[in-house]
């Protein structure tokens, strides 16, 4: 087992107001950011006077003071992410535009999350700034997190259609918007995210049961701060959003049913309970909501009869080499073959694997997997958009799905496949997985969200790295180059099999 070095925490700056009643603003931001593994620097834009019933006063900070603080910290503790909350004067808006422009010029990777706070949850307006005066900030904002009312104000549109509001807000220059569903009266709340990623618009939608709690003061600030914390810890936006939602659900459930006063939202660190995580909605989930579960792999998760090593190979030669070694599962991953060759190889592979009673998964080519009655088919996220999962299920063959991070994992799990793959655990030479490297800690955490479907880890798993990955409790290790580029491939298989004969954690 490798000893993990303690790493430096990412630095997050929060620029927002102080709430003397303790629940919201800077207090919520600091507690959230600390509980999610960040170092925090704070810049207080206003000293507000409020209690559980009303907002009494808002005392704005001079921009000169804020600028002194920025000057003191910009090279001493430069931010990875800035969370912006309450801004109360036009001077502050202009000051912020100048500061963000300067900091972004110095660090093009700097991420800015903006929670456009307008009114206090106890009632009363924090400022008289118009939407127009705030929108000058939006071209400098990576993610803006309004609730429905704030989104309508920003987009200058009274519609309750979140997709239209989101499009309107992106047109004003923000890279992504998350419209929070927290203020809805519905029992199920939906958060809607629209993001420009690599010049394409992507939608991410999450749904959770509404949690009624009197301890929700500062929930909105905590939401934006948690998002900032997860982005600072290098999660993709879709995963940061999913983790944030779970953080909020977990915090709200903590004091559910306790009455007395309007209490501060509880920051409890990363959510480890699968029940706190949202449902993933959207077109794919909607399209397959009536899809039955796929056939299982018929393994026992108690270690008595596991899947063992899962070689992923690209030829019949490799199948012929490896099948005599006593494998439970293998994948044929053919790329760039002509149709007739492809069909011949898949047909022969099915026959070879039936002879040794090995579960054969065909990568990508689901129609051919059905035609030749392979044991199963493996599909990636892009393949899911075009494949017909009803046809695969109807044909009675199994389905494995690739996932990269908790958002895709939860979405794929809702489709009830035969197994789920998590990758890429490490950088790999087999495929470009830039930006989707999970690491062992994220793998361990995503495994906590697994219900009963077996989970396979893939990507950069060498024999030396395999011990840590196996110790997480995954059901199988899928490997390409650790076998195909090994000096002695058969021996490599045996070494993996030896390691995996020891149940995880022993
Ligand atoms: C077990 C396993 N996990 C992941 C993959 C990758 O599938 P996909 O994302 O479709 O990418 P390609 O393999 O098609 O490049 C896999 N094949 N097997
Ligand atoms: C094919 C593939 N899919 C991945 C994913 O994360 O979905 S990683 C990967 C490459 C696996 O090859 P190797 O064992 O040589 O790193
Ligand atoms: Mg594929």
Automatic annotation (TrEMBL):
Protein residues bound to 4-amino-2-methyl-5-(diphosphooxymethyl)pyrimidine: 331-335, 363, 402, 431
Molecular function via GO: thiamine-phosphate diphosphorylase activity
Enzyme class: transferase
Catalytic activity, as annotated: 2-[(2R,5Z)-2-carboxy-4-methylthiazol-5(2H)-ylidene]ethyl phosphate + 4-amino-2-methyl-5-(diphosphooxymethyl)pyrimidine + 2 H(+) = thiamine phosphate + CO2 + diphosphate; 4-methyl-5-(2-phosphooxyethyl)-thiazole + 4-amino-2-methyl-5-(diphosphooxymethyl)pyrimidine + H(+) = thiamine phosphate + diphosphate; 2-(2-carboxy-4-methylthiazol-5-yl)ethyl phosphate + 4-amino-2-methyl-5-(diphosphooxymethyl)pyrimidine + 2 H(+) = thiamine phosphate + CO2 + diphosphate
Required cofactor names: Mg(2+)
Biological pathway: Cofactor biosynthesis; thiamine diphosphate biosynthesis; thiamine phosphate from 4-amino-2-methyl-5-diphosphomethylpyrimidine and 4-methyl-5-(2-phosphoethyl)-thiazole: step 1/1
Annotated keywords: ATP-binding, Kinase, Magnesium, Metal-binding, Multifunctional enzyme, Nucleotide-binding, Thiamine biosynthesis, Transferase
Domain of life: Bacteria
Binding site for 2-[(2R,5Z)-2-carboxy-4-methylthiazol-5(2H)-ylidene]ethyl phosphate: 428-430, 460, 480-481
EC number: 2.5.1.3
The Pyridoxamine kinase/Phosphomethylpyrimidine kinase domain, residue ranges: 19-261
UniProt domain Thiamine phosphate synthase/TenI: residue ranges: 314-483
Cofactor note text: Binds 1 Mg(2+) ion per subunit.
Pfam family, one: Phos_pyr_kin
Binding-site residues, Mg(2+): 364, 383
Family, per entry: Belongs to the thiamine-phosphate synthase family.
Biological role stated in the UniProt entry: Condenses 4-methyl-5-(beta-hydroxyethyl)thiazole monophosphate (THZ-P) and 2-methyl-4-amino-5-hydroxymethyl pyrimidine pyrophosphate (HMP-PP) to form thiamine monophosphate (TMP).
NCBIfam families on file: PRK03512.1, thiE
Protein name: Thiamine-phosphate synthase
Record organism: Thalassotalea fonticola
Lineage, broadest ranks: Bacteria, Pseudomonadati, Pseudomonadota, Gammaproteobacteria, Alteromonadales
Name of the coding gene: thiE
